[in-house]
Amino acid sequence: MEKIKNNWESIKNKIEQAAFKSGRKASEVTLLAVSKTVDIETVRRAHSLGINDFGENRVNELLSKRESLPGINWHLIGNLQTNKVKDIV
């Protein structure tokens, strides 16, 4: 958990610096954490730190995690196979 927390703090600082340099607010930036191959408990811990948007590239993984982790904004990233469209829509 400590590693996730430290990484999150470092990323937030980088976002704040980049936003400041570009004349924007850090609150205008959305960090999309990719949860590919990450277990549900780790995603839950990351969400508890304030990470609210997660991306998955596999429909089955996204659907499984979405059921177990309400309150998270899920994004499908990457290519979508035609036979999976009905599952994700």
Description:
The chain is mainly alpha-helical and 89 residues long. It has 2 domains: 27 residues; 58 residues, no CATH class. Helix content is 48%, strand content 11%. It has 4 helices and 3 strands; from the N terminus they run αβαβαβα. Strands 1-2-3 form a 3-stranded parallel beta sheet. The mean pLDDT is 92. This is YggS family pyridoxal phosphate enzyme. InterPro entries: PLP-binding_barrel, PyrdxlP_homeostasis. GO terms for molecular function: pyridoxal phosphate binding.
Separate helix tally:
4
Alpha-beta content class? mainly alpha
Please provide the ordered H/E string of secondary-structure elements: HEHEHEH
Side by side, the strands of the main sheet go 1-2-3
- Report the helical percentage: 40-55%
Work out the radius of gyration: 15 Å
Instruction: Find the count of extended strands (DSSP E, 2+ residues).
Output: 3
Biggest sheet descriptor:
3 strands, parallel
Classify the beta-strand content into a percent band: 5-15%
Mean pLDDT: 92
Distance between the termini: 33 Å
> How many domain modules?
2
Quaternary organization: single chain
Overall geometry: globular
